[in-house]
Amino acid sequence: MESVGNIIMYFIIALAIIVFSVLTVTSRKILRSAVYLLFTLFATAGIYFQLDYEFLGTVQIAVYAGGIVVLIVFAILLTHKPGERAERLTSHKRFMGLTAALAGILVCGYALVNFASNAASELSKNFSCDIRGIGNALLSTDKFGYLLPFEAVSILLLACIIGGVVIARKR
Amino acid sequence: MKFDLTILMYIIPSVIMFCCGVYGFITRKNMIAILISLELMLNAVDINFVVFNRYLFPGQMEGMMFSLFAIAIAAGETALAIAIVINVYRVVKNVDIRELTKMKF
Amino acid sequence: MNLNYTIAVLILPFLTFVFLGLVGVKMKKKAAGIVGVCSMGVTAFIAFAAAFTYFFGTDQGQVIDGVRQQLQVFDYTWMQFTKNLVIKIGVLLDPISAMMLIVITTVSFMVHLYSLGYMDGEKGFQRYYAFLSLFTLAMLGLVVASNIFQMYIFWELVGISSYLLIGFYYTTPAAVAAAKKAFIVTRFADLGFLIGILILSYYTQTFDFITLTSNPGAVISSAGGATFLGCSAMAWAMTLIFIGGAGKSAMFPLHIWLPDAMEGPTPVSALIHAATMVVAGVYLVARLFPIYCLEQGTMTIITVIGAFTAFYAAAVACTQSDIKRVLAFSTISQIAFMMTSLGVASQMLDNGVGYMASMFHLFTHAMFKSLLFLCAGAIIHSVHSNEMTAMGGLRKYMPICNWAFLFGCLAISGIPPFSGFFSKDEILVAAYAKSPLWGIWLAVVAGMTAFYMFRLYYKIFWWNNPDYGDHKPHEAPWTMTLPLIILGLLALCAGMIPFGKYVNLARTVEYESGINWMVAGSSVLIALIGIGLATKLYLKENPKPDRMAEKTPGLWTAAYRRFYMDEFYQYITHHVIFAHVSTPIAWFDRHIIDGTMNMLARVTHSTSYSIRRFQSGNIQSYVWIYLIGALALATIVMLCVI
Question: What is the pLDDT of residue C576?
Fold first, then answer.
């Protein structure tokens, strides 16, 4: 049995995720889309916090909300006139998108209801995910150590920086 | 009233988020909007990783690590994608994907 | 003495051809011409040296038991496919090839020299000399060929250089048409040659001339009992090979290309279409003569075709007005003499006199016919016309040419002591020995020869004295008259050579031959009658010839139109072959073969057109399809699990 505060919090987050996700993809103003995306990402971070992943939630806010969304907003500001609206969707496009999305929800929902309705319902109490453990895991070479992917990602990010500079620079 | 926050309660918003991403990806014409939709999908997947990790394997942290790396990679991917978008914008003065047919045939 | 150096007669013209062909354009015209003449002079010198060494050398192995040996002085395996199928390039020296070396290089050298003057200032002068060198190379390669396949290769090379030289003035449509005609007609005949070679070598397992001719009986029996349409395979092979030779030597009915080939420059006509290339067919038959001897059916065909062609060409020559055409038909007639002579020859009859006579006539004919052609060239050069009507009384303007032409005419008519007398006499002897029919036939043709040659001579040099106006005909430059003088002297005295001692069927050193005074006297008498008739009709301008033509309009027109052979071919090709064979084939090709391909293309096109939307490049639709597919798959899996 969860605490009532947890449940209320959960509903707020779930509602925010659903509403802002829908708004993100339906808004005709691109800047608003970006802002709704930001809210969605915040809500996601909320889920992480609720599941006791404080570090992940922090990273989510810092990298996603603070980095990616800012990048996207800059790109929007560079490439769009203020107040520009996307043209209305054709019915064909909307139909395609709706069928794909609804079919996805239906199939996934069906699968979840059928196969996962009585899956684990309790959050395990013996759970600890402290910063120290994460840090050790990231830089360890033991079993369950993540040094190699860590370094790989660092190289990948470097490549992204160089690539971004090369691609976007003025010729 | 007995109300449990089961695993399902977290998966369902994530599924909806993912499908919104799909809808956006398929319908939008704006490259940046498509990118945003992509971020939504990625994010939904991240949620799934974390939720499954938390509920099913609380003693380990593979799912969380996966999300962590996914976030890092998403950051790099977005940076690159935006660089491309801006470059395209310089060439065609537009970010509409329908205009990007020059290299198609 | 080592005769290996004979290969130089092939290498030198080849190098000249390559040199003039590649850098000739960069050179001055005169320089290119002089390079060609010098190279040809050296080649001629080497060829003469080789021939004289062969005939007069006293080395061991050259003459054994009084018989000249066939010397394989150069032998190189070019391509070896299997143990038997070997293509070699070699140089074979025997009496006829040595004799041909002399003939070809002499005439070729004269023509090279003459062309310096004749072609002076022509566009493409360097190209002309390059082609002449190519032709000389090909012709020499043909005569010294040590195997029949090498001969075929050079045979085709001769054909192509003839094509190139006939079409030398490629801006003139008539020259282009003539070149194509010559090429196609000879090509058609060469098909027979090739099939003949293949049949022959299929059964005998060899291409080699020495192997083939040293034991002809084995060659004939090698085919076993194989027959085709009632004739033995070997008879077919030899007849087909003869057809190849008939095409090159312009035998009836494959002669139609030769008169048209006169569109080429006149020295080319002298070299290729009078002296050397056209006798290649005769040479081919002579080369394989021991085998032909045993195929009496083929020999009869050769005789009949030769005799008929001789008469036909002589009849046409009597009416032509283009001086080169007259000479062309005269050439056909004379080659037919040689062919007939080979046809009637055999070792049993007078020690193979027909064979010797044929080669002798080839030798003398090359000299006096190239002389006549070169004279015609000089005349055309100064009058600027080929037509007899534009000439007349030229003896005052061109004395050297007059004498040279007269020598040539006397030689071809067979008046002693000119060279033609001796060789033609031998041919008549051979023909009488075979059958009086052929003897009388050829004697009549010889009389016609004398008539039309003197008709030509009088029409050019006597007849009337037209007013040439300001543009008086003049004697040609020395480069042109010198060859005339040399060839005139050769025409006068070439017959004195005891030819039989050098070239005869058995290749013996000793050979008995004498002038048969019965035959000689009658042939001289007939020739004199022909000349007398021509003198009466054509010495002074008079209306008699025209009246004669009017009295026999059908005959005269028919002869003038060459008995409608060209029209006949035209009809056959256009109304029979094109209309009833080529058109259906073309239809089949266009509609069935092309149609199949077009249908494949069209089906591919329409299919890809209709499915092109599958690959629109639109990622959004790709994602949609992918997603729907994935969901469908997931649904199926779930339905199966439940």
Answer: 82
The verdict on whether omega for the bond into residue C466 sits within 30 degrees of 0, i.e. cis, is: no
> Angle at Cα C230 formed by Cα C226 and Cα C232, nearest 5°?
35
C-beta atoms surrounding C566 within 10 Å:
14
CA distance B105 to chain A (A): 22
Which residues of B are less than 8 Å from C624 in CB distance?
26
Neighbouring-strand partners of residue C322: C387
The count of other CB atoms within 10 Å of the CB of residue C427 is: 32
The domain segmentation of chain A, as residue ranges, is: 1-86
For residue A85, the SS3 value is strand
Please tell me which of the candidates A100, A104, A111 has its beta carbon nearest to residue C638.
A111
Largest pairwise CA distance in chain C: 124
Which residue positions in chain C have pLDDT lower than 70? 1, 60-61, 224-225, 347-351, 468-470, 513-515
Could you tell me which residues are beta bridge partners of residue C80?
C86
Distance CA B18, CA B42 (A): 8
Number of alpha carbons in the 13 Å side-chain half-sphere of residue C266: 29
Whether the predicted pLDDT of B105 surpasses 70:
no
Res. A21: pLDDT tops 90: yes
C624 in reach of chain A (CB within 8 A): yes
**Which pLDDT value is given to residue C337?**
86
Domain boundaries, chain B: 5-94
Q: With an 8 Å Cβ cutoff, are C623 and B104 in contact?
A: no
Q: Which residues contact C405 (CB under 8 A, 6 or more apart)?
A: C371, C372, C375, C457, C460, C461
Residues ≥6 apart with Cβ < 8 Å to C250: C257, C258, C278, C309, C331, C332, C335
The ipTM value here is 0.91
Pick one of 3.40.718.10, 1.20.120.1200, 3.40.30.120, 1.20.58.220 as the CATH number of A1-86.
Answer: 1.20.120.1200
pLDDT at C77: 85
* Structure tokens given for A39: 């809210």
Residue B25 at interface with chain C, using a CB cutoff of 8 Å: yes
Minimal C-alpha gap between B28 and chain C (Å):
9
Quick check: A74 pLDDT over 60? yes
Q: How far apart are CA A167 and CA C172, in angstroms?
A: 65
The CATH architecture one would assign to domain B5-94 is Orthogonal Bundle (1.10)
What confidence tens digit (pLDDT) does each residue in B12-31 have?
999 999 999 999 999 988 89
User: What number of helices (H) and strands (E) belong to chain B?
Assistant: 3, 0
Tens digits of residue pLDDT in A114-152: 877 666 667 777 677 788 888 888 898 888 889 999 999
List chain B residues with CB under 8 Å of A138.
65
Residue pointed to by tokens 């004379």: C334
Q: Chains near A, with 3+ CB pairs < 8 A?
A: B, C
Q: With CA atoms as reference, report the closest residue to C268 among C100, C141, C129.
A: C129
| Interior angle at CA C148, CA C187 and CA C308, nearest 5 | 55
Task: Give the contacts of B2 (CB within 8 A, at least 6 positions apart).
Answer: A1
User: CB distance A14–B32 less than 8 Å?
Assistant: no
The answer to whether C278 touches C255, Cβ cutoff 8 Å, is no
b or e along C503-512 (b: 16 or more beta carbons within 10 Å of the residue's beta carbon)?
bbbebbeebe
Is B72 close to A67, i.e. CB distance below 8 A? no
Q: Do B101 and C617 make contact, defined as CB atoms within 8 angstroms?
A: yes
As a whole number of angstroms, the distance between CA C529 and CA C523 comes to: 10
How confident is the model at residue C509, as a pLDDT?
A: 74
**Looking at chain A from residue 64 to 93, which residues have their Cβ under 8 Å from any Cβ of chain B?**
64, 67-68, 71-72, 74-76, 78-80, 86-87, 89, 93
**pLDDT, tens digit, for every residue of A98-121?**
999 999 999 988 888 887 766 666
